[in-house]
Amino acid sequence: MQKQKIDWHAQAAAMQFDGRAFINGRRVAAQSGATFECLSPLDGRKLTDAARCDAADIDAAVAAARAAFEERRWAGMAPAARKQVLIKFADLIMQNRDQLALLETLDMGKPIRYSRSVDVPSASRCIRWYGEAVDKLYDQIAPTADTALALITREPVGVVGAIVPWNYPMIMAAWKIAPALAAGNSVVLKPSEKSPLSALRLAEIALEAGIPAGVFNVVPGYGHEAGSALALHMDVDCIGFTGSTKVGKLILQYAGQSNLKRAWTELGGKSANIVCADCPDLDAAVAASIGAIYFNQGESCNAPSRLFVEESIKAEFMAKALVMLPDFQPGDPLDEATVMGAIVDSTQLKTVLGYIASGQAEGAKLLSGGVQQRTESGGYYVAPTLFDEVNSSMQIAREEIFGPVLSVIGFTDLDDAVRQANATTYGLQAAVWTSDLNKAIQTARALRAGSVHVNSYDEDDITVPFGGVKQSGNGRDKSLHAFEKYTELKTTWIRIG
């Protein structure tokens, strides 16, 4: 039986929005009464007013989280019991799939096809995976002499503050809250002011699933108000941050200025994608390179925005790439046929257009795009943009753009390509395409990045860690390694005899 097509415009017109904070199990306005507007990047229309929370609201959320932790409402539950609640949480996310997907698209601008098929299921899978993992983690007994029994146990850190960005609101939230909750912590989540609505709905769903009041709190607001108050709070034991390198540096400073809380940062990227002449499948390399840079409107920290192509195949590569660009023209995000949606807001639109102007001014060759589109909609859209003849000193090759802009750099010597790839302050992700196994391994070892793909780009799984080196941050999301961020090691030494 053919699935009935959803009228997303009708659903959007009927949707009710609630921008109030979620603290101690209920929706509340900011204590000051202040709000900020949530505007949809699709057409610039106002969705709702969100609570503009500040230090007073952070105090209330942290107090609720601390009380829940000290009373062991959640931390005191057996891991198998927490597992069942988290699995129910994951199930309820999928039951609310259409509503969550629509919130994500209206608030952030990504195509509904991806909000529904990627973002919501990914968030659900993440929460389910950590729920299923938590009762399978064992502690240790140290190999001491017979006169002692030394137990090495992992315990929850306590109150976890999480600050997440606007580009993948649900996925980034899930990557933080799932391992933190699974380990028994209480959480205060500060979503981006540009896309807070899906996180607020997740908190309601978590309560419905059985996560006790106070264990999971969501406090919307601006970074310099709510975000800084959370990172500076003396009763927050750990802060997990995903966002810009500039703000990440502040987070580390705030941790030091306050209580030396654990601080884990997942920051920006300027990822290099190296295609050698002996690439095993040029069509696949083109498809992956183009698809990855324009996915999510280029608003991905790990987007392969620097493309190094060996000169002997560069002309063929570029011809194939240009043929693909019409498929990525921005369209109505509520149309399921659309593959590239809107830039998140007018500020980011200006930033992207400014980088495009910089590339042209510095002499890069604009082969396609470079202009704003769908201006009649009232929203914020940029054509897929492709620059050739870029060199590594140009601003578009050095700085993170966070938009649909690809810079192509030719090379004749692989060692030089790797040197240029590493000549950046970032180190999040990279890739190399080659049929030579020795070359692949040697290049992967030489590239300074948290993840290196060989003959693919951006393929991953919840079972592998995600994060970077250098100024791409110090933390790792996903995999069992994430538990290391949200637990403390304790030694209990028992004297025998």
Could you characterize the architecture of this molecule?
The chain has 497 residues and is an alpha/beta fold. Helices cover 38% and strands 20% of the residues. The chain has helices at residues 8-14, 55-70, 79-95, 97-108, 112-133, 169-182, 197-209, 223-232, 245-257, 282-294, 311-324, 346-361, 395-398, 414-422, 437-446, and strands at 21-23, 26-28, 35-39, 46-51, 140-141, 148-156, 159-163, 186-190, 216-218, 238-242, 262-266, 272-275, 306-310, 365-368, 372-373, 381-382, 385-388, 405-411, 429-433, 451-454, 487-495. The strands form six sheets. A seven-stranded mixed sheet has the order 14-17-18-13-12-19-20, with helices on both faces. The chain has a five-stranded parallel sheet with strand order 9-8-7-10-11, with helices on both faces. Strand 7, helix 6 and strand 8 form a beta-alpha-beta unit. The longest helix has 22 residues, at 112-133.
